[in-house]
Specification:
single chain, alpha+beta, 434 Repressor (Amino-terminal Domain), 6-stranded antiparallel β-sheet, 9 helices, elongated
Length: about 300
């Protein structure tokens, strides 16, 4: 019979099995430690076998395995050892326990209760998130990046009152208004006065244009301006159609985003921004002598 598939457990062994195995070991001329090394087990297991302490060896399969290995190493036949193993009685079958069946209506009610708890927890978690997302909308236009490095002056020195900032002038306000002319009526005095007024206005406008800078924005652009003392005059997003005017003495360092849509006039001349552009951003500076230079070469 193959002991691996033995259906009965080893409950006890015949008295003297351990002593017989010990005699066989001593007859073979081996110590306990030597036999344990050959069996690849601890010396304690050899001692338990020779002392008939089989309950320390664990389950039935381990007891049979150790005894088979022991007998093989000391020269005993397994057929002489197996009859000394006393099988135990068959274990009693487990007693079935009756369990009352759960009514169908109760099972359905419990299932509905579980689902209700799940839905309530989900709403309690998701509803605040949805409310926060709806009530804290981000602005459509993000704040533009700073195009120029601010001056190393302190904030108190850089601060400038709002009333000193240049006003944005509409393009239409730059057009001089001419006197109305009635067809078919000639008035030499009125024509002479109108011509004198127009000439004077043109001279005044030419004088004003010669000493100022104008920035005309055809599209929405970013504008940043520092004067020659390092004070920041403008730092904002400019809408399309706006026009800025500054005295020539206020122009220090300039940065223009979306530079392709900006026209810069210095007096009566139009500044070529292409030589100051990097991508779509133009940066330039005006020296103390009035020369326009690139910021990378102009410091």
């Amino acid at each position: 019979m193959n002991d691996t598939h033995h259906s009965e457990r080893v409950h006890a062994c015949a008295p003297g099995l351990g002593a017989r195995l010990r005699q066989a070991r001593e007859h073979a001329g081996m110590s306990r430690s030597q036999l344990a090394a050959r069996m690849h087990v601890l010396t304690r297991i050899v001692e338990d076998i020779e002392s008939d302490c089989f309950e320390r060896l664990g389950a039935d399969v381990y007891i049979r395995g150790h005894l088979r290995s022991f007998s093989r190493e000391v020269g005993l036949a397994w057929s002489d050892i197996e009859p000394m193993l006393a099988p135990s009685r068959q274990e009693a079958a487990p007693i079935p326990i009756a369990v009352a069946a759960t009514p169908r209506w109760r099972a359905n009610l419990e299932a509905i209760g579980h689902r209700s708890v799940y839905i309530t927890l989900t709403v309690a978690i998701v509803a605040p998130i949805v409310w926060l997302a709806g009530s804290h909308q981000l602005p459509d236009t993000a704040a533009p990046l700073t195009l120029l490095q601010p001056s190393t002056r302190s904030d108190a020195a850089v601060a400038q009152p709002a009333e000193q900032r240049p006003a944005v002038l509409a393009t239409a306000s730059m057009t001089p208004r001419l006197p109305a002319v009635v067809p078919g009526v000639l008035d030499p005095l009125a024509d002479s006065a109108a011509a004198s007024s127009t000439d004077a206005g043109r001279r005044d406008e030419s004088a004003d244009v010669a000493g100022e800078w104008r920035f005309v924005f055809a599209e929405q652009s970013w504008f940043e301006l520092y004067d020659r003392d390092g004070r920041r005059l403008v730092h904002e997003l400019v809408p399309a159609g706006a026009e800025y005017r500054f005295p020539e003495a206020d122009i220090g360092q300039v940065a223009l985003g979306n530079a392709a849509a900006v026209t810069v006039h210095s007096g009566a001349d139009t500044l070529d921004l292409t030589r100051f552009r990097q991508g779509n951003v133009a940066r330039f500076a005006v020296s103390s002598s009035g020369e326009v230079v690139s910021r990378s070469s102009g410091g």
